[in-house]
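Hey L., structure's done. Input below.
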Amino acid sequence: MKKSFYILQSLFLMSILVGCEYFSTTTYTPQQIKKASEWSTEDQGPSFESCQGLSAEEQFLCFKDTLSQAVYDALNAEELIASEALNEEIILIITIDNEGNLALDSIENRASVTSALPNLTEILTNAILSLPKAIPSTKTNVGISVTTSIKLPIRVVASPQ
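Output:
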């Protein structure tokens, strides 16, 4: 009886010693977390369904081309009359959330352009909202969809009427 008690006691102690490693915690520094969160070449950028099946680089080019074409088509569909001559570059900041919804977040360098073309912001916003739902970006090291923003430069050239 004592022998079986010692065997059980020994097994119990060994299981505690071996099992303790499962309760250990790993601590990560803020620098390690930031590094893991940074965008890497392995991560998947946003895309549209029509761009699927291409290489990662071609998918992103297809995505940007689709955005550019939507903006170009929206601007060409309007009868825009500028109040002054323009040859300016504006930068559209477009956000793609983790569900694939697109939105025009802001427009950089727009002061002179929007004063000459007051309804430009509304036209650009509608152009972005008219696009189909995107496939969101994915952080491959953790396998989750993430919100991303891209910058799309647009050259606005106009002469006054």
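Residues 38-158 form one domain. The longest helix spans residues 56-77.

-- N.
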